[in-house]
Design brief:
Layout (H helix, E strand, L loop, with lengths): L6 E7 L2 E6 L10 H14 L7 E6 L10 H4 L7 H19 L5 E5 L2 E3 L1 H7 L3 E4 L4 E3 L14 H8 L2 H10 L3 E2 H6 L5 E2 L5 H13 L3 H15 L4 H15 L4 H11 L9
Parallel strand pairs: 2-3, 3-4, 4-6, 5-7, 6-9
Antiparallel strand pairs: 1-2, 7-8
Helix pairs in contact: 1-3, 3-10, 5-6
Length: 266
Protein backbone atom coordinates (compact mmCIF):
# COMPACT_ATOMS: atom_id res chain seq x y z
CA UNK A 1 0.00 0.00 0.00
CA UNK A 2 1.37 3.43 -0.98
CA UNK A 3 2.22 5.84 1.90
CA UNK A 4 -0.35 8.54 2.68
CA UNK A 5 -0.49 11.82 4.61
CA UNK A 6 -4.21 12.68 4.39
CA UNK A 7 -5.49 9.13 4.87
CA UNK A 8 -5.03 6.67 7.72
CA UNK A 9 -5.18 3.13 6.34
CA UNK A 10 -5.51 0.21 8.77
CA UNK A 11 -6.66 -3.42 8.75
CA UNK A 12 -8.93 -3.87 11.78
CA UNK A 13 -9.25 -7.57 10.99
CA UNK A 14 -8.33 -9.96 8.17
CA UNK A 15 -10.01 -9.15 4.89
CA UNK A 16 -11.20 -5.69 5.98
CA UNK A 17 -9.51 -2.37 5.25
CA UNK A 18 -10.45 0.83 7.10
CA UNK A 19 -9.65 4.08 5.29
CA UNK A 20 -9.97 7.13 7.55
CA UNK A 21 -9.85 10.64 6.11
CA UNK A 22 -7.28 12.10 8.47
CA UNK A 23 -7.47 15.91 8.48
CA UNK A 24 -9.68 16.39 11.56
CA UNK A 25 -8.56 19.98 12.16
CA UNK A 26 -10.00 20.85 8.72
CA UNK A 27 -13.05 18.56 9.11
CA UNK A 28 -11.30 16.18 6.69
CA UNK A 29 -11.65 18.68 3.86
CA UNK A 30 -10.39 17.51 0.47
CA UNK A 31 -7.19 18.76 -1.10
CA UNK A 32 -5.28 18.02 -4.28
CA UNK A 33 -3.06 15.73 -2.20
CA UNK A 34 -6.07 13.84 -0.84
CA UNK A 35 -7.35 13.27 -4.37
CA UNK A 36 -3.91 11.94 -5.32
CA UNK A 37 -3.89 9.58 -2.37
CA UNK A 38 -7.46 8.37 -2.91
CA UNK A 39 -6.74 7.60 -6.54
CA UNK A 40 -3.51 5.75 -5.75
CA UNK A 41 -5.25 3.83 -2.97
CA UNK A 42 -7.95 2.71 -5.40
CA UNK A 43 -5.26 1.52 -7.81
CA UNK A 44 -3.53 -0.42 -5.03
CA UNK A 45 -6.78 -2.07 -3.92
CA UNK A 46 -7.38 -3.56 -7.36
CA UNK A 47 -4.47 -5.92 -6.77
CA UNK A 48 -5.19 -6.91 -3.14
CA UNK A 49 -6.38 -10.52 -3.45
CA UNK A 50 -6.83 -10.90 0.32
CA UNK A 51 -9.13 -7.92 0.72
CA UNK A 52 -12.89 -8.52 1.03
CA UNK A 53 -14.45 -5.22 2.14
CA UNK A 54 -13.35 -1.56 2.45
CA UNK A 55 -14.69 0.81 5.11
CA UNK A 56 -14.48 4.59 4.71
CA UNK A 57 -14.74 7.00 7.65
CA UNK A 58 -13.63 10.45 8.78
CA UNK A 59 -11.46 11.34 11.77
CA UNK A 60 -12.92 13.62 14.42
CA UNK A 61 -16.32 15.30 14.23
CA UNK A 62 -16.99 15.20 10.48
CA UNK A 63 -16.98 12.70 7.66
CA UNK A 64 -15.73 15.22 5.09
CA UNK A 65 -16.51 18.93 4.79
CA UNK A 66 -15.88 19.02 1.03
CA UNK A 67 -13.13 20.85 -0.81
CA UNK A 68 -10.79 22.79 1.46
CA UNK A 69 -11.82 26.45 1.27
CA UNK A 70 -8.18 27.57 1.37
CA UNK A 71 -7.56 25.75 -1.90
CA UNK A 72 -10.97 26.82 -3.27
CA UNK A 73 -9.87 30.47 -3.09
CA UNK A 74 -7.59 29.96 -6.10
CA UNK A 75 -10.09 28.21 -8.38
CA UNK A 76 -11.42 31.36 -10.04
CA UNK A 77 -7.83 32.46 -10.74
CA UNK A 78 -6.95 29.33 -12.68
CA UNK A 79 -7.20 29.32 -16.44
CA UNK A 80 -10.10 27.38 -17.93
CA UNK A 81 -7.71 24.58 -18.87
CA UNK A 82 -6.16 24.50 -15.39
CA UNK A 83 -9.60 24.46 -13.72
CA UNK A 84 -10.79 21.63 -15.94
CA UNK A 85 -7.65 19.65 -15.12
CA UNK A 86 -8.21 20.26 -11.38
CA UNK A 87 -11.82 19.17 -11.66
CA UNK A 88 -10.97 16.07 -13.68
CA UNK A 89 -8.34 15.14 -11.11
CA UNK A 90 -10.91 14.99 -8.31
CA UNK A 91 -13.48 13.24 -10.47
CA UNK A 92 -10.95 10.61 -11.49
CA UNK A 93 -10.11 9.89 -7.85
CA UNK A 94 -13.73 9.36 -6.82
CA UNK A 95 -14.54 7.33 -9.91
CA UNK A 96 -11.54 5.09 -9.21
CA UNK A 97 -12.61 4.62 -5.60
CA UNK A 98 -16.16 3.71 -6.59
CA UNK A 99 -14.78 1.22 -9.13
CA UNK A 100 -12.65 -0.82 -6.71
CA UNK A 101 -13.64 -4.50 -6.92
CA UNK A 102 -14.46 -4.77 -3.21
CA UNK A 103 -17.69 -3.45 -1.64
CA UNK A 104 -17.18 0.01 -0.12
CA UNK A 105 -19.08 0.95 3.06
CA UNK A 106 -19.15 4.57 4.27
CA UNK A 107 -19.49 5.30 8.00
CA UNK A 108 -20.87 8.84 7.97
CA UNK A 109 -20.56 10.68 11.28
CA UNK A 110 -21.03 14.44 11.12
CA UNK A 111 -21.03 16.53 7.95
CA UNK A 112 -20.69 15.05 4.47
CA UNK A 113 -20.75 18.28 2.49
CA UNK A 114 -19.88 19.09 -1.11
CA UNK A 115 -17.19 16.71 -2.25
CA UNK A 116 -17.70 14.81 1.00
CA UNK A 117 -21.30 14.21 -0.06
CA UNK A 118 -20.00 12.89 -3.40
CA UNK A 119 -17.54 10.66 -1.54
CA UNK A 120 -20.34 9.18 0.59
CA UNK A 121 -22.44 8.61 -2.53
CA UNK A 122 -19.53 6.75 -4.15
CA UNK A 123 -19.85 4.03 -1.50
CA UNK A 124 -22.00 0.95 -2.09
CA UNK A 125 -23.62 1.24 1.36
CA UNK A 126 -23.88 4.14 3.82
CA UNK A 127 -24.46 3.81 7.55
CA UNK A 128 -24.87 7.05 9.47
CA UNK A 129 -24.80 8.37 13.00
CA UNK A 130 -27.61 10.64 14.26
CA UNK A 131 -25.17 13.54 13.77
CA UNK A 132 -24.71 12.84 10.05
CA UNK A 133 -25.82 15.55 7.63
CA UNK A 134 -25.43 15.83 3.89
CA UNK A 135 -25.52 18.72 1.42
CA UNK A 136 -24.47 19.66 -2.09
CA UNK A 137 -22.57 22.71 -0.87
CA UNK A 138 -21.06 23.71 -4.22
CA UNK A 139 -24.24 25.49 -5.33
CA UNK A 140 -23.86 27.76 -2.28
CA UNK A 141 -20.43 29.02 -3.40
CA UNK A 142 -21.41 29.94 -6.95
CA UNK A 143 -20.67 26.60 -8.57
CA UNK A 144 -22.78 23.72 -9.85
CA UNK A 145 -24.17 21.12 -7.46
CA UNK A 146 -23.46 18.67 -10.28
CA UNK A 147 -19.99 17.75 -9.07
CA UNK A 148 -17.86 14.62 -8.66
CA UNK A 149 -20.71 12.35 -9.72
CA UNK A 150 -23.49 13.77 -7.53
CA UNK A 151 -25.86 14.49 -10.44
CA UNK A 152 -25.55 10.83 -11.53
CA UNK A 153 -25.47 9.07 -8.18
CA UNK A 154 -28.01 10.98 -6.09
CA UNK A 155 -31.09 10.50 -8.35
CA UNK A 156 -30.33 6.77 -8.38
CA UNK A 157 -30.62 6.64 -4.58
CA UNK A 158 -33.54 9.01 -4.05
CA UNK A 159 -36.22 10.23 -6.44
CA UNK A 160 -35.22 12.74 -9.17
CA UNK A 161 -37.47 15.35 -7.57
CA UNK A 162 -35.90 14.98 -4.14
CA UNK A 163 -32.44 15.01 -5.73
CA UNK A 164 -33.34 18.23 -7.56
CA UNK A 165 -34.52 19.90 -4.35
CA UNK A 166 -31.37 18.89 -2.47
CA UNK A 167 -29.10 20.04 -5.29
CA UNK A 168 -30.86 23.31 -6.18
CA UNK A 169 -31.12 24.53 -2.59
CA UNK A 170 -27.87 23.22 -1.14
CA UNK A 171 -29.81 22.57 2.08
CA UNK A 172 -28.69 20.02 4.65
CA UNK A 173 -30.32 16.61 4.79
CA UNK A 174 -30.24 15.48 8.41
CA UNK A 175 -29.77 11.83 9.37
CA UNK A 176 -33.44 11.00 9.96
CA UNK A 177 -34.46 12.34 6.57
CA UNK A 178 -31.49 10.62 4.92
CA UNK A 179 -32.70 7.28 6.27
CA UNK A 180 -36.31 7.99 5.24
CA UNK A 181 -35.46 8.81 1.62
CA UNK A 182 -32.99 5.94 1.24
CA UNK A 183 -29.82 7.99 1.20
CA UNK A 184 -28.46 5.87 4.07
CA UNK A 185 -29.32 2.27 4.97
CA UNK A 186 -29.78 2.94 8.67
CA UNK A 187 -28.83 5.17 11.60
CA UNK A 188 -26.47 3.81 14.24
CA UNK A 189 -25.28 5.52 17.46
CA UNK A 190 -22.01 7.31 16.85
CA UNK A 191 -20.17 5.26 19.47
CA UNK A 192 -21.01 2.00 17.70
CA UNK A 193 -20.99 3.18 14.08
CA UNK A 194 -17.66 1.67 13.11
CA UNK A 195 -18.43 -1.59 14.92
CA UNK A 196 -21.73 -1.83 13.07
CA UNK A 197 -19.89 -1.27 9.78
CA UNK A 198 -17.42 -3.99 10.76
CA UNK A 199 -20.30 -6.36 11.53
CA UNK A 200 -21.74 -5.68 8.10
CA UNK A 201 -18.29 -6.17 6.56
CA UNK A 202 -17.95 -9.55 8.29
CA UNK A 203 -21.30 -10.67 6.92
CA UNK A 204 -20.25 -9.70 3.40
CA UNK A 205 -16.79 -11.24 3.82
CA UNK A 206 -18.35 -14.56 4.81
CA UNK A 207 -19.60 -14.93 1.24
CA UNK A 208 -17.55 -15.96 -1.79
CA UNK A 209 -15.12 -13.09 -2.55
CA UNK A 210 -15.46 -13.66 -6.29
CA UNK A 211 -19.23 -13.93 -6.00
CA UNK A 212 -19.45 -10.63 -4.11
CA UNK A 213 -17.20 -8.90 -6.64
CA UNK A 214 -19.29 -10.23 -9.52
CA UNK A 215 -22.39 -9.00 -7.70
CA UNK A 216 -20.89 -5.51 -7.43
CA UNK A 217 -20.05 -5.58 -11.14
CA UNK A 218 -23.63 -6.57 -11.98
CA UNK A 219 -25.11 -3.84 -9.78
CA UNK A 220 -22.90 -1.19 -11.34
CA UNK A 221 -23.53 -2.39 -14.87
CA UNK A 222 -27.28 -2.32 -14.37
CA UNK A 223 -27.22 1.15 -12.83
CA UNK A 224 -25.33 2.53 -15.82
CA UNK A 225 -27.67 4.27 -18.21
CA UNK A 226 -25.58 7.29 -18.97
CA UNK A 227 -22.12 6.10 -17.91
CA UNK A 228 -20.73 7.75 -14.78
CA UNK A 229 -17.73 8.96 -16.79
CA UNK A 230 -20.01 10.82 -19.20
CA UNK A 231 -21.91 12.38 -16.29
CA UNK A 232 -18.64 13.47 -14.67
CA UNK A 233 -17.44 14.89 -17.99
CA UNK A 234 -20.55 17.06 -18.09
CA UNK A 235 -20.06 18.09 -14.46
CA UNK A 236 -16.38 18.89 -14.99
CA UNK A 237 -17.18 21.35 -17.75
CA UNK A 238 -19.90 22.92 -15.65
CA UNK A 239 -17.48 23.59 -12.80
CA UNK A 240 -14.82 24.93 -15.16
CA UNK A 241 -17.37 27.37 -16.59
CA UNK A 242 -18.79 28.30 -13.16
CA UNK A 243 -15.41 29.62 -12.00
CA UNK A 244 -14.95 31.93 -15.03
CA UNK A 245 -17.30 34.73 -13.91
CA UNK A 246 -17.59 36.87 -10.79
CA UNK A 247 -20.32 34.88 -9.05
CA UNK A 248 -18.10 32.12 -7.68
CA UNK A 249 -15.48 34.36 -5.96
CA UNK A 250 -18.30 36.49 -4.52
CA UNK A 251 -20.27 33.48 -3.29
CA UNK A 252 -17.18 31.83 -1.81
CA UNK A 253 -16.15 35.03 -0.03
CA UNK A 254 -19.67 35.51 1.33
CA UNK A 255 -19.82 31.90 2.48
CA UNK A 256 -16.52 32.21 4.36
CA UNK A 257 -17.55 35.57 5.87
CA UNK A 258 -21.05 34.26 6.72
CA UNK A 259 -22.77 37.07 4.80
CA UNK A 260 -25.33 37.17 1.99
CA UNK A 261 -23.70 37.16 -1.46
CA UNK A 262 -24.31 40.06 -3.86
CA UNK A 263 -24.38 38.74 -7.42
CA UNK A 264 -23.79 41.06 -10.38
CA UNK A 265 -24.33 38.47 -13.10
CA UNK A 266 -20.95 39.23 -14.72
Amino acid sequence: MSPTETLLVTRPEPGVLLVTLDRPARLNAMTVQMFDELEQLAIDLRHDADLRVVLLAGAGRAFCAGYDLDEADELAQLSARQMLARQEHGARALEALRAIPQPLIAAVDGAAAGGGFALALAACIRLASPEARFNAAMVRIGMSAGDLGISWLLPRLVSPGIAAEIMYTGRFVEAAEAERIGLVSRIVPSASLLEECLTLARTIAANSPFGVQLTKRALHANLDGLPLRAAMELENRGQALATRGTDMPEALGAFKAKRTPQFTGA
